[in-house]
Write a sequence for this structure.
């Protein structure tokens, strides 16, 4: 099973050319079609057009691998909006994957009128968001172990950290406190998950499920198990074998496989956001139910954007974004 079969030239150029031509030829067809028929009745013409283009773009990595310009992890990008710092890496499963940790740039952002990088010592009760884009484990991402930086280097109380990245870090902190080779901080105070991909085993991809019926999402049909697994899944699991997704609670915590015994006792207060029109909806709901069962309803918050696509809160043009951000604000209040 090849990872990105058209990654090499000349196949890469031929593939990209064919995709660009397909989009160019499809645009007038979509433009007319969406005047009369929309993918979802609540969608505007503009949202229908943008989503159609994004759906094509999201499938490109499956054929050629990562293709978008990526930040240079070897240098801190100059910017007037943030303060750049270096964050060291730590080892997790590195021996099996034959990889080594490396440091990457991180950027401090602050509200207008406030210092970007916090002053030391940190004031009691002072909070911070730690954001790491999941990027399907392969794109626009950083390693979740960067959580060590704001606690052990800067001095934030873990209870005042709101983290927005995959569950794996939280599970690692909960299950390995006091046993890691590097002193680990206590589990974080809050966990915010936005459209998390939590079942790489595709156990939810059955006829009638959201993976099949939500076919207007920006995620392509490969996430429904109709084709070969997506590039990100192959790239992420290949060192361990595809079977790892059916038995590992770090990789597929919401899997319906009986071999995945994922429990959530000791996890922090959590809020999950999902799109009502995204392919990952069923597995996200399963995660919500599992976490609620182990943690209690008072520790769980959930928001599902009606007819919203995958990861809709990152798109400023998406009409459901404001309501989702308001729900987060109320959860934090």
């Amino acid at each position: 099973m090849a990872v990105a079969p058209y990654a090499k030239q000349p196949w890469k150029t031929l593939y990209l050319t064919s995709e660009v031509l397909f989009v160019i030829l499809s645009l007038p067809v979509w433009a007319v079609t969406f005047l009369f028929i929309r993918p979802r009745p609540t969608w505007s013409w503009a949202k229908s057009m943008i989503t159609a283009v994004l759906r094509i773009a999201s499938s490109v990595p499956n054929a050629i691998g990562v293709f978008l310009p990526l930040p240079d992890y070897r240098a801190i990008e100059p910017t007037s909006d943030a303060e750049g710092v270096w964050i060291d890496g730590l080892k997790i499963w590195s021996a099996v994957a034959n990889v080594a940790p490396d440091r990457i740039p991180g950027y401090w952002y602050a509200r207008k009128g406030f210092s970007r990088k916090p002053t030391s010592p940190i004031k009691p009760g002072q909070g911070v968001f730690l954001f790491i884009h999941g990027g399907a484990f392969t794109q626009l991402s950083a390693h979740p172990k960067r959580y060590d930086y704001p606690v052990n280097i800067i001095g934030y109380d873990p209870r005042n950290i709101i983290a927005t990245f995959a569950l794996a870090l939280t599970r690692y902190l909960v299950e390995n406190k006091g046993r890691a080779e590097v002193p680990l901080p206590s589990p974080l105070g809050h966990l915010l998950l936005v459209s998390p991909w939590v079942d790489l085993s595709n156990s939810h991809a059955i006829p009638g499920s959201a993976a099949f019926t939500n076919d207007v999402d920006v995620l392509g049909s490969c996430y429904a198990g109709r084709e070969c697994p997506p590039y990100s899944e192959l790239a992420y699991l290949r060192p361990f074998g595809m079977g790892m997704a059916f038995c590992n609670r770090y990789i597929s915590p919401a899997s319906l496989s009986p071999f995945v015994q994922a429990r959530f006792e000791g996890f922090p207060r959590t809020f999950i956001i999902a799109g009502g029109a995204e392919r990952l909806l069923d597995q996200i709901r399963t995660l919500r139910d599992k976490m609620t069962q182990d943690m209690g309803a008072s520790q769980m918050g959930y928001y599902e954007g009606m007819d919203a696509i995958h990861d809709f809160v990152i798109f400023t043009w998406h009409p459901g974004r404001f309501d989702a951000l308001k729900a987060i604000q109320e959860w934090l209040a």
